[in-house]
Amino acid sequence: MQKTFMQRPQDVQREWHLVDAKGRVLGEVAAEAATLLIGKNKPTFTPHVDGGDYVIVINASEVAVTGNKEQDKMYYRHSGRPGGLKQENFATLLDRDPQQVIERAVKGMLPKNKQQTPRLRRLKVFAGAEHAYEDKLKQAK
Q1: CA–CA dist 34, 53 (Å, integer)
Q2: 124: phi then psi, degrees, rounded to nearest 5
Q3: Does any domain span residue 76?
Q4: Which of 41, 89, 98, 117 is the most interior residue, by most CB within 10 Å?
Q5: For 124-138, what is each residue's pLDDT tens digit?
Q6: pLDDT by residue (tens digit) across 31-86?
Q7: Beta-carbon neighbour count of residue 72 at 10 Å?
Q8: What is the DSSP letter of 25?
């Protein structure tokens, strides 16, 4: 008889992954990062245990979108005060803060549960090709 495998939180082995967003579509990059953060790429995946890995996304400022989304895709935020709704399109947000574009896309692809916040903490996004986790990636190889 075969037993069902259930991963335990103390048995989680976290790895480091590098995702290059240069010239790639935003949705593809976000989907790949979300899959790695959740841990669905591992044979030890267990839904109720956060067994995902660390993900480093580089070249966030060079991510692409299809169609007219550069002008049509809108991002909203609210200050909490009357009349405090702010909006900006994809091109403006990409110029102002390219990391936020990737972070928002990945957050939208993660399950809305208690594991979302710790998973997002393991996402590291950089606008350029340089990042501060070279030593972690070398250890993982």
Answers
A1: 10
A2: -120, 120
A3: no
A4: 98
A5: 999 999 999 999 888
A6: 999 999 999 999 999 999 999 999 999 999 999 999 999 999 999 999 999 999 99
A7: 10
A8: B
pTM above the 0.85 mark?
Answer: yes
Please report how many Cα atoms fall inside a 13 Å half-sphere around the Cα of residue 137, on the Cβ side: 12
Question: What whole-number distance in Å separates Cα of residue 34 and Cα of residue 111?
Answer: 9
CB 124, CB 131: distance < 8 Å: yes
Residue 12's Cβ-count burial label (10 Å; 0-12, 13-18, 19+) is middle
Task: Report residue 125 as tokens.
Answer: 């996004």
Query: CB-based contacts of 112: which residues, under 8 Å, 6+ apart?
Result: none
Is 136 a member of any domain?
no
Domain with 116, as residue range(s), is: 15-65+97-130
Total tally of structural domains belonging to the chain = 1
Whether 44 and 7 have beta carbons less than 8 Å apart is answered as yes
* 124 is a domain residue: yes
- Are the beta carbons of 13 and 88 closer than 8 angstroms? no
For the domain that residue 28 is a member of, what is the CATH number?
3.90.1180.10
Q: How far apart are CA 128 and CA 126, in angstroms?
A: 6
> CA 12, 102, 7 angle in degrees (round to 5)?
15
